[in-house]
Write a structure and sequence with these properties.
It is built from eight helices and eleven strands. The chain is of the alpha+beta class and 237 residues long. The chain has two domains: 143 residues, Jelly Rolls; 72 residues, Arc Repressor Mutant, subunit A, CATH 1.10.10. The N and C termini lie far apart (41 Å).
Length: 237
């Protein structure tokens, strides 16, 4: 963890009120008087790529709102393999299972450098009791989280290798520039799509040769989506 900016006490809640992604996260529906209920520190933290934010089985003490960057949620399969069950981006909430049970149910690991706000569970529980708007927001977030995980597994594990890789490319396009897609290591992509590393590399290279995507960096993480329509209906293996 890189604690670039950590408030030892949350100073007047000014940052949350002015947060650029506030409308996307838990505090979107809070009013001015609701902020006065918050007394525990809310920390503004940064993590480097590859660092764990939380671990499966750890005692759940906090929720996290993701302000920037990308996080993978990882679970171990019965045969010992790691499986990425969801990817989180700006505005998502990490660790919602803390509201339902004593431990976290997945590893949360930074895929890119990330910035998060750590919300102590006691803060959420108090607001939940005293602010019905937040209670409704939490229920909506929980339902959304479950649906996203189900959709992720269903959509990205259906079809042949080309269809799976194409689906991931389309999902990972930037919200600000849909022609730009930022991917991860081939190992991570294989874990997401249940494909071998060699298959992922071969498929990406084929897409580049066919003019569907164009590499924008030397390590093969950033691509320009040249032909989204053909990616939506890629030919078979």
């Amino acid at each position: 963890m890189i604690p670039i900016k950590t408030e030892s006490a949350w100073r007047g809640t000014a940052d949350c009120r002015r947060c650029g992604i506030r409308d996307m996260v838990l505090f979107a529906d809070l009013r001015e008087e609701d902020f006065n209920l918050i007394h525990a520190p809310i920390d503004d933290l940064e993590y480097a790529a590859g660092q764990p934010l939380l671990r499966m089985g750890e005692t759940a003490t906090s929720l996290y709102t993701l302000r920037s960057g990308v996080i993978k949620l990882v679970r171990n399969t019965v045969d010992g393999r790691q499986r990425i069950v969801r990817v989180l981006r700006s505005g998502d909430v990490v660790g919602l299972e803390a509201l339902m049970g004593p431990t976290y149910d997945s590893d949360a690991i930074a895929l890119t450098p990330i910035k998060v706000c750590r919300l102590p569970l006691q803060v959420i529980q108090r607001l939940n009791r005293e602010t019905p708007r937040l209670h409704q927001r939490l229920l909506e977030q929980w339902h959304h989280s479950l649906k996203e995980a189900d959709d992720w597994l269903a959509e990205l594990n259906f079809g042949n290798a080309r269809q799976r890789v194409a689906g991931l490319i389309l999902k990972m396009r930037s919200a600000h520039d849909p022609e730009v897609c930022t991917l991860f290591s081939r190992e991570d992509m294989g874990a997401m799509l249940d494909l071998k590393l060699e298959t992922v590399s071969r498929t990406l290279n084929a897409f580049a040769r066919e003019g569907l995507v164009e590499p924008m960096d030397k390590i093969g993480r950033v691509y320009r989506v040249v032909d989204a329509e053909r990616l939506r209906a890629p030919k078979g293996d």
